[in-house]
Amino acid sequence: MRFDPWNPDFVAFPYGVYSELRRDAPVSFFEPTGQWLVSRHADVNALLRDRRLGRSYLEVATHEEFGRQPEPEFQEPFWRISRAGMLDVEPPVHTRLRRLVSKAFTPRMVESLRPRVRAIAEGLVGAFVEKGGGDLIAEVAEPLPVTVIAEMLGIPEQDRHLLRPWSADMCGMYELNPSLQAQHAAVRAASEFADYLKDLARSRKAAPGDDLISALAQIDELTEDELAGTCVLLLNAGHEATVNVTGNGWRALLRNPGELARLREDRSLLPTAIEELMRWDTPLQLFERWVLEDIEIHGVRIPRGVEVALLFGSANHDPEVFDDPERLDVGRADNPHISFGAGIHFCLGAPLARIELMESFGALLDRTSKLELVSEPEWKPGYVIRGLRSLDLSVAG
């Protein structure tokens, strides 16, 4: 098999191909997307921190100066909102937005959410166990982070069912060479999502509550697009990874029953287990960067104006960094995985994601004596954001 992000077999298990890339071609050109694939941990980690690369080039050049075609006009609503959030911009805009939003994600504030996260997790898991199981992703993994971030933002409960479909459609644009249908779905979702958030922000500016949208609406430095883009990013990034770590992680534990038993017997391993599950089956497999100045990696010159694809899943299985990387080890102490990224774009919500994962995994371990797969799970078609369609389990309390 070769690197083929549209092949279901590759999506199901890309790690064998990664091993070959790290050994034989740590920097290689992938013609179908016009990107340079970077597969070793040291290189991925260094490039994430290298300011000669960026998530966007529009701060330093036009599309034409970079030899790129502007995005099709119909995509404008998507990119207007996406580039109004901090993920797809660079300093100084990124610095300003992250400084403003970071005030809501201080360690003390995030830790203060733990009792509420625990209560939500215990409620979802309790209902799941009481009926003997079901689809863990639809019934526990998805509602937990959506509820948490929606409560933080102040999204009314009756509207929260809109969030997951909007998020899923928007994230489709970040796959490699998305289909025209996926592009239109992403644009439609971005427009509806942004309009909804702007309307909500206007009402909160007039009558603020104790929530993040109310706080952001009072900041004159933020434009309406920036407020909406920030909230979209928090909602999308705030649950896509958590959902997929939960699904991928429980699949991993059920395929490694010795490690699951070890975790049941010693609950103090839960923090290292969460880190290991993020490493072992990485939810975000690839992260892109534009080359803003010529660089050279292992003697390969990569010129300004092209894009590199940093293979997080490969980096997290690099034997130069991880002892016996193909082995799941819930007690792995030395675990510098890069599932949350690195550098200025390091995931702002990482502490909250860790709390959500700790509480949901802990609740399921506490409430069950036995979990079994009802059917072999299938992977969703996406490769960049990689997760299961469902995870059907039977459980015993």
Characterise this structure.
By secondary structure, the chain is of the alpha+beta class. It has a domain of 265 residues: Cytochrome P450 (Cytochrome p450). Helices cover 50% and strands 10% of the residues. It is built from 17 helices and 10 strands. The strands form 3 sheets. Strands 1-2-8-5-3 form a 5-stranded mixed beta sheet, sandwiched between helices. It has a 3-stranded antiparallel beta sheet with strand order 4-10-9. α13 packs across α15. It is globular.
Topology:
Layout: H1 8-12, H2 15-24, E1 27-30, E2 35-38, H3 41-49, E3 53-54, H4 76-82, H5 93-102, H6 107-112, H7 114-130, E4 133-135, H8 136-141, H9 143-153, H10 163-171, H11 180-206, H12 212-217, H13 224-255, H14 257-265, H15 270-280, E5 286-291, E6 295-297, E7 300-302, E8 307-311, H16 312-315, H17 350-367, E9 370-373, E10 392-396
Parallel strand pairs: 2-8
Antiparallel strand pairs: 1-2, 3-5, 4-10, 5-8, 6-7, 9-10
Describe the structure concisely for a colleague.
It contains 17 helices and ten strands. It is an alpha+beta fold and 397 residues long. The chain has a domain at 74-282 and 341-396: Cytochrome p450 (Orthogonal Bundle).
Strand order of the largest sheet: 1-2-8-5-3
Molecular shape: globular
The secondary-structure element order is HHEEHEHHHHEHHHHHHHHEEEEHHEE
Estimated share of beta-strand residues: 5-15%
Structural class: alpha+beta
Termini separation? 42 Å
Largest sheet: 5 strands, mixed
What's the pLDDT, averaged over the residues? 93
CATH overall fold name of the domain at 74-282 and 341-396: Cytochrome p450
The count of helical stretches stands at 17
The beta-strand count equals 10
Task: Report the helical percentage.
Answer: 40-55%
At the first level of CATH, what is the class of the domain at 74-282 and 341-396?
Mainly Alpha
Shape-level CATH architecture of the domain at 74-282 and 341-396: Orthogonal Bundle
The CATH homologous superfamily of the domain at 74-282 and 341-396 is named: Cytochrome P450
Low-confidence stretches: none
Radius of gyration: 21 Å
